[in-house]
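Hello again, I could really use a second opinion on something today. Take your time with it, there's no hurry, and the full record follows here:

___
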Amino acid sequence: MENQQREKMVVLSYAERIEVKLTEALSPLRLLVRDDSDQHRGHGGYREGGETHFHVEIVSQAFEGLSRVARQRKVYELLESELSERVHALELVTKTPAEAAAAKA
């Protein structure tokens, strides 16, 4: 990543950083990033100010042919720096467009 892009990521919230990285890498049809940190107050990994526990729903063609575990590994790899800094936990829902359409039917 170029220095200018790194500097921009520093001023973004962790939720915004997650959105940017997943959007750039996976071109999702649907992406929801929700900060659930307040629900984990007093539990392991919680820090004042939140941005430690996130719920992420993503629908992407990039998940086609991948197992649930492989999809989650892909997301964790993309968010490696956030997980090593402040983010303690991710609750992931990863679907292909076909799976998302079938769930709505």
